[in-house]
Amino acid sequence: MTPQAPNTLMAHKAISLASELSNSEKRVAAAIIDHFNRRTGQCDPSLDCIAELICMSRRTVIRATDRLQKLGFIRRIRHGGHYHRNSYEPVWSRFCQVEADWKGRRSARRARLGAPNLSPCWSQSRHVGGDTAATQTFPINILKETSQGEASLQKPDARSPPHDKRGLAMEANLRPKPPNRAQTYRPSGSTPSSTAARDAAERRWNNELTDHFCNQPSIYSRIVEAIDVSLMNAVTDAELSERGSGLKHLMDELFRRNVIDQPTPVRDERPQGGPKSLEE
User: Is the pTM above the cut of 0.85?
Assistant: First the structure.
């Protein structure tokens, strides 16, 4: 029986998928199938022709045809073609076997992974009416339905998130709330109001320090380098206890540590005159 065109296409597919064939053997087999005449059944390319077309040596082509005949992909008849060339007969049943093995492996893998028979889509139960044609997303999906992800593999759970009429999960109330910054960094036993008051006190004495020494950058940088965490907390506590006393407490402590020459008052209460410097 003369094979039809689909048989040759199936043979090329089987040659590509045959794991027992090397690259050179696959190329030789493809060249032989390509020379097969579907009308007459003639297939007798010369060894030199195959070697020239696929850029291989004649000896490599001979070894490849021997291997293809041994594996049952072709039958070779010596001097059975035109000009006493070898004649080749593709064994179509062997190519069908390779394709069937390939399909079996694909089916076994789908069964092993427990893949659903529908397109994976957690938040939509089915396509809406009048849906236009779209790209196929699952090889065996023939229904106008999409799976519910894990819900399609398990029993329905009353705790599953509800869906609105558009099929979208209402996740706004189900997502975890972002952590509150004040709650995250709040000292133990403090409240939001006390945290805000402490932050305000720290800003006050920092602003006063900057305003007072804005024209004395060398002294300001020396003071900033001397402020550590414990001193910063102590100055903030002083500012919390009495408004305006934080910077004075800072200057007194820096004088005690020999960072500045004298505990100069940091604020001049007189109506006239600018900020006093450490050198006055």
Answer: no
